[in-house]
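Good morning C.,

I know you're traveling, so I'll keep this short. The sequence:
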Amino acid sequence: MKFKSLKTMVVSAAVVASVSMAGSAMAKVEGDTITLGSSISLTGKYATNGLHTTRGYDYAIKVINEAGGVKVGGKTYKLAVKYYDDESTPARGAQLAERLIQQDGVEFMLGPYSSGMTKAIAPVSEKFGVPMVEAEGASRSLFTQGYKYLFAVLSTSEQYLSTTIELAAQTTDNPSEIKVAMAFENDPFSLDVREGVVDAAKKYGMKIVIDDKLPADLSDMSATLTKVKALRPDVLIVSGHSKGAATAARQLEEMKVSVPIIGMTHCEAAKIQEKFPKAAQGIMCATQWVEGIPKRDSMFGSASDWNEGFKAEYPSYSSVPYQSAQASAAVLVWKEAFEAANSFDKDAVRDAISAIEMETFYGDIKFSAAGNNIAKPMFMRQIDANGNYNLVVTADDMQFPRKAGY
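The tokens, ready to paste straight into the viewer:
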């Protein structure tokens, strides 16, 4: 689909509200503003990625509004988003989603951060027939519930680290001899990641020698790493969002643990290449998006253009986490859907979302009947000695093995 070119109009990017605000009812559209709503983790264990997500939303809104906004019924509208802090707590997220819909009158939702939070909020938006475009809930179980109002721009979670196993298998003529150690957060996302890894390991007859769950606060994985030092696996897989990635990198260094192949989620979001450069070298990182992919759209330009624009807006990033990119892509879906529907009727907009098939800076987007994006792959990147992330397509692209020795 083509995006229409509109005149420049600079406006405020976001409306931020604290949970203590006693706001008056807010219609879905007031004047020339379309207000989206989001319960998002600004505090709690998901706060780091909650920040990356809100920045992705806010940057997209800024760019879209400065390009002229959204055109519906011959009139142009600017976008805004109202946030509540769900404190990384599912029950709180569900409560706040209902508040956005019932009290604030929001009829168009952006997703929260994480699969667990999305799992709590999706039934609320479904109950009230409010479409939600989400960017951070990858658990495949979200798309087996028969939801009609949930749409996700990202790839599902079972794909995240199974590629690490596939790459490990390419390094030997006898992949069945490879030993695998795993440690996962006990949440829907990470447990789905685990299923993908287990399925891939079984395909090659690999032996899983450690299969641990990370502690709830994600602050210590020394018990797992002690077993790693004793059993000397060939592959270590870790999935625990940003806090889990930071803990893993820190304790790999502290305990002087080295494994030939290490695969993790959330490396960029945790900034392990900056905080733990020695431990990070050689780690394989799952990513939903790479700034060098040959994808583009008329709003943000190429993947590289979006990346440079985002870093100019938020210069603290040396490597932009994919969470921010996919958050911007979710906002772009809303613009396209409003204009395609040429209406603010919830069901008309919902139908327009389901029919979207487009190329964006983030990659191709096409939703299945279940609401997940079936047009975009996952990627793996490896951190080099300079802290750079290098795309890995085959085992020949890997820095293999990592430095040996415990």
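Safe travels,
E.
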